[in-house]
Amino acid sequence: MSSFDIVSKADLQEVDNAINQTSKEILSRYDFKGSKSEIKREENIVKILADDDFKLEAVIDIFKGRLIKRGLSIKYLDFKKKEDASKGMVRQEVEIKEGIDKEPSKLIIQEIKKISPKTTIENLKDHLRVSSKSKDELQKIISDLKNFEINIELSFVNFRE
């Protein structure tokens, strides 16, 4: 029986690279001259600190652009509420989402059942395992799910025959 796993996991090394490139651009841009704006990652949280709302939005735009250039989807990002920091600065946290939660997994399972009712799907904590007797069915499921509109980024790994 053939199977594959559906996961949602960002490459944290690429996220770090995007953060480093964003930091370098902040240091070199004229509109950030004298600014105390910074971006850093702690575990699955990216912390952005800026002088004002304008600079915060600029840092976020730079960061998103760097992620896209590095081949990462911005669907991994969950922007939290902006908050005021000390000395008139503005702070925003961005969570890097990993794993497939209950709601998206239900939608994915429904979509798979529409595509191929004979497949079996296991919901394993933070990912899904799809199994079928036919590897052609699994390849069709993968190609259809790549076009499926959902608010998380999906990756297909561990394809086994």
UniProtKB/TrEMBL annotation:
Keyword tRNA processing: no
Keyword Ribosomal protein: no
Gene3D superfamilies: 3.30.70.860, YajQ-like, domain 2
GO molecular function: nucleotide binding
Superkingdom as given in the UniProt entry: Bacteria
Coiled coil start-end: none
GO cellular component: cytosol
Keyword annotations: Nucleotide-binding
InterPro entries named in the record: UPF0234-like_C (IPR035571), UPF0234_N (IPR035570), YajQ-like_sf (IPR036183), YajQ/Smlt4090-like (IPR007551)
CDD domains found in the cross-reference section: YajQ_like (cd11740)
Biological role stated in the UniProt entry: Nucleotide-binding protein.
Family label: Belongs to the YajQ family.
NCBIfam families with a match to the protein in the record: PRK05412.1 (NF003819)
Protein's recorded name: Nucleotide-binding protein EVJ46_02670
